[in-house]
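Readers of this paper often ask what the protein records in our data store actually look like. Nothing more is needed to write down the fold, since each code stands for a local backbone conformation. Below, we set out a record of this kind in full and without editing:
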Amino acid sequence: MARKKYSLFKRGDVIRTNPQDGFYGIAVVLDDGVKLELSPNKWSYPMCHIAITPLIYDYEVTINDIDLAQLYPLRFLRCYSLDNIPEFFKEELLVHIHTTRNVAELPVIGNIDPSNIYQNELSWQPKSDRFFICGDIHKYLGREAYLNWLDKNRITD
């Protein structure tokens, strides 16, 4: 049986996400794919950095609807609840490492210069608040942007 061929993300792709049924967000691919050596002689699929932006729409947004000045990585306050440790919050910059494979088949609605979105160095090493290795994208990519929008609009789901 042949493997399914997925379209590949490339630098500058603007992805329309679907973090919640009826809501749409925007993510931007910040670089081209690079294969990473996961262990000696074991390589990953090509990986890229994807920034989740805070933009949320209640319609299928197009590139023409987007205020490009509002494209920047979301800073998300994540709550952690671990055994035997009091609940705590940590701010996370939503720039993470994903494969270039568009497994969720999310639409690419345009292509822009991503250097306007994120100017800092992109690392392949995870940091405490960014660059987590997340693998393939999933159907609800950008869920944090939707949760952030709910919080700002004080809407409960």
About this structure: Residues 52 and 139 are 14 Å apart (CA to CA). The chain is about 5% helix and 35% strand.
